[in-house]
Amino acid sequence: MATPAFDSSVFTRRGVLAAAASTLLLTACGQPGQRPDDAASSTAPGGQELVVGASLELTGRGAALGVLQRNALELTAESLNVSGFPVGNLRRTVRLEIRDNGSDPRLAARHAAELTRQDQVHALVGGTLAETSMAIVGVAQQLRVPFLSLGTCDDIVLPLAERTYVYKLTPDAGDVARRMAQLIESQRVRRVALLAVEGLHGDSGVRAVRGALRAAGVELRRTVRLSAGGQGFASATQRAAAVEPDGVIIWATAPDSGNAARELRRAGYRGPLFFDSGAVAEDTLAPRNAAAVEGAYAVHPSCLANSTLTATTTAQMARRDFTFRYLQRHGTFSGFAPYASDALQLLASAARSASSVDRGRLRAYLQTQVTEGIAGAYAFAPIRHGGMAPDSLGVYVVSRGSWAPWS
């Protein structure tokens, strides 16, 4: 899929974040920072490697997103391992231990425990589904191992007092919903139906959308939940179309997002569609969905907009290079792919700053990461473990089978 041009002409909070970052684009170089007092000790091994365990949805209903994360992890590990990265007086490399959780939360929790206790990983990454991420959260907290979640649910990092070892890379639902409500209001859409998938991701969306639409003066005529198993979409979309909305929000990850759009069109709805960021995967633009999603909008981080011709900043050039390498290896590129790349780079940066791969020290230094990644800008802090900056979000539209910036 072709990647559209990126407009970086407006100086925003993202620029401030990038300038203030102790590292540029999560590179593993530079001087270590001051050591936090609360860095806990760890039983994780030493040696020459940063060992990262990943429990991903390589099969099952989450595979549309999970496979992308495996691809990104492998590409980024290869890049980091060309010359290694400094950690204290050593140059370390990354070793990945990747498991397929089959989109099963129980298996994801088991993976997390095995990777931590048996494989002695220094950190965990994974869980593109909210349910698999939440299953890993409990293990990460109990075993005191840093966990970087790729799931799309705000509760993954809340309440913070119970999530001290947990960090989330995807945007917060409230930020996505507010940007979506602004878009809907600008399109003079006054009556909206919401289709939200059952489960934690949909729960976050329902709460966020209700508040955002109320603030924007847009009427939410009906909320309908989509079965997490992908069944009964026809009846759900018929209920949404029956209230004759001016617009429909689909809050679901791929493949549910594309399936819901297709069923909406079959139900007779012909108005605009608005996707949250979880829809942005190759599956949503698959030929079977092409007619249904053409012209649909999505709120998504800036990694969707990257041009090999206009890249001028460090972040833009890194996005360009990552996209080019991903396309070379896999033929197509999805905007959801860079999250795992950013997770691995954040861990390498935290290890560099901490001069250690100790689990407790990695946790402490993750919460000081303020930088521009491939997917967008991150601003972790002791009081904020969901680090995607709101300024990273943009609006995109499906045009001729690909995502293009909306203006």
Automatic annotation (TrEMBL):
Keywords: Signal
Keyword Flavoprotein: no
One Pfam family recorded for the sequence: Peripla_BP_6
Record bears the keyword Signal: yes
InterPro entries for this protein: BCAA_transport, Leu-bd, Peripla_BP_I
Ranges for domain Leucine-binding protein: 51-386
Family designation: Belongs to the leucine-binding protein family.
Protein name according to UniProt: ABC transporter substrate-binding protein
Source species: Micromonospora solifontis
